[in-house]
Amino acid sequence: MRVSRTQAAENRQTVINVASRLFRERGFDGIGLKDLMKGAGLTQGAFYKQFASKEDLAVEASRRALESASGRWSDAAAAHPDDPLGAVIGFYLSGDHRGEKMDGCPIVALGSDAARQGPDVKAEFEEGIKAHLDVLGRFIAGNDCEASRGKAMGILATMVGAVTLSRVVNDPDLAQALLDAAAEQVRDAAAA
């Protein structure tokens, strides 16, 4: 059955969206094309009409996940203009975000996987990290751009590390303590 160009474009976007979520849940190598396409409601044969390879899809899905994550930060900040960093800390370093395996931070979910991928996937993560740093930089802007950039890097590293650690422990009290400690450190770093 032939598919219209419009439908093919919609199918491609559906596959990218589904892959963005499933890769975050299972990792790049944790799901095969058959299951990925099934999750998108399509056949495996349709995959090669849309993408050159699984790596091609990984690049697109990474971009989508990182843009979504950066957008969530901007949305949280816009909803609380009086304390944009506090708004980001509030959702990012929360138990709810800790549990968001499919929709949570792709840097946390896929960071170690991305480090083992090709340069195109790494380039998407680099751009996504820069976008997060830009958002943080707007929250903590000071007179010294280099110092503000360094502070943003430390804050992002602390937040990503805290969510990562909170996800790898079984004890929910320890997980929450890690998130709370990071929130305190980030607020102190931003105020310094």
UniProtKB/TrEMBL annotation:
<feature type="DNA-binding region" description="H-T-H motif">
    <location>
        <begin position="32"/>
        <end position="51"/>
    </location>
</feature>
<feature type="domain" description="HTH tetR-type">
    <location>
        <begin position="9"/>
        <end position="69"/>
    </location>
</feature>
<dbReference type="Pfam" id="PF00440">
    <property type="entry name" value="TetR_N"/>
</dbReference>
<dbReference type="InterPro" id="IPR001647">
    <property type="entry name" value="HTH_TetR"/>
</dbReference>
<protein>
    <submittedName>
        <fullName>TetR family transcriptional regulator</fullName>
    </submittedName>
</protein>
<dbReference type="InterPro" id="IPR009057">
    <property type="entry name" value="Homeodomain-like_sf"/>
</dbReference>
<keyword id="KW-0805">Transcription regulation</keyword>
<keyword id="KW-0238">DNA-binding</keyword>
<dbReference type="InterPro" id="IPR036271">
    <property type="entry name" value="Tet_transcr_reg_TetR-rel_C_sf"/>
</dbReference>
<dbReference type="GO" id="GO:0003677">
    <property type="term" value="F:DNA binding"/>
</dbReference>
<keyword id="KW-0804">Transcription</keyword>
